Amino acid sequence: MPMPSTIHVFGSLNMDLVCRTPRLPQPGETILGSAFATLPGGKGANQAVAAARLGATTRMVGRVGNDAFGTELTQGLRSDGVDVSGVAVDGAAPTGVAAIAVDSAGRNTIVVVPGANGQVGEADVDRLVAHLQADDMLLLQFEVPLPIVVAAARAARARGVIVIVDPAPARADLPEDFFKTVDMLTPNQLEAQQLTGLPVGDVATAIAAARQLVQRGVGTAIVKLGEQGAVVATPERSFHQPALPVAAVDTVAAGDAFNGGLAVALAEGQDLAAAVAFASAVAAASVRVAGAQASMPMRSQVFSADSQGNA
């Protein structure tokens, strides 16, 4: 595969409002937290930072509000080398936010308020398409309106662009022909279960779900299983990629790190197995650092995670 000129990311930009807690609260329960921080996030922006820090030419397309959070988010992306010329400022909606609770084991719950992300529309697709080249890649997620994600995927596929979709948050209302526009679909365990209706709890059940997604038209399905690694299915084969043994500090955005790493590895011409192994190493490096974009590793840190395991 030739090196693409650009990895485009079409999706969300959020400010993450992160609370550290000893454990996650039950419904109706109030517990005391130990720390609070505002951190740049949004699945789209996270994936853009991941790709850029790994050395790829990266362009972000999305929306922020005309507020302090929006300014901080775009400045942060720019400082990481991401082209933000495709990020519009929406005067009618605030910047999106995500309220995140993280427990002492690194597990998390997330509530997203879309704000300007919910206003992403056809004009944003037009800004994306104007810069797409046949040797580019496109990363998509579901934190902006689904019809617009579908439109972006179709437009990119029509131009020969490789489309990689992180179906988060999971949707049960995907049009069936959408799967045929996706070169790679990368759900986590819960998302794979919601998309297929199959129970997903281990490698064998994840492979069954991945194979069903391929049968529905996806080129390659990769189910991310956290500490169990990832499974991959194509029309020709399936395989398991074990996770690297690392002590997790914070699993927020590990899936975004994975997708950014996957796109970069494929862009560099690595084969599928090598690309998934590299993406797993990127995700492993990310969980050792708190925060979303803050946890996206530089290339040297990925090699460290890959070679030293839990170092």
Q: Could you walk me through the main structural features you see in this protein, from its secondary elements to its overall organization?
A:
With 311 residues, this protein is α/β, with parallel strands linked by helices. The chain has one domain: 3-Layer(aba) Sandwich (UDP-N-acetylmuramoyl-L-alanine:D-glutamate ligase), CATH 3.40.1190. 33% of the residues lie in helices and 23% in strands. It contains 9 helices and 13 strands. Strand 11 (220-224) and strand 12 (230-233) form a beta hairpin.
What's the arrangement of secondary structure elements?
Blueprint (H helix, E strand, L loop, with lengths): L6 E4 L3 E7 L14 E7 L1 H11 L4 E8 L2 H12 L3 E8 L5 E7 L5 E6 L8 H8 L7 E5 L4 H13 L3 E5 L17 E2 L3 H8 L6 H13 L4 E5 L5 E4 L4 E4 L12 H14 L4 H15 L12 H10 L3
Parallel strand pairs: 1-4, 1-8, 2-6, 4-5, 8-9, 9-10, 10-11
Antiparallel strand pairs: 2-3, 6-7, 11-12, 12-13
Helix pairs in contact: 1-7, 3-4, 5-6, 7-8, 8-9
Concise description?
With 311 residues, the chain is an alpha/beta fold.
Keywords:
33% helix; 9-stranded mixed beta sheet; 13 strands; UDP-N-acetylmuramoyl-L-alanine:D-glutamate ligase; 311 residues; alpha/beta; single chain; 4-stranded mixed beta sheet
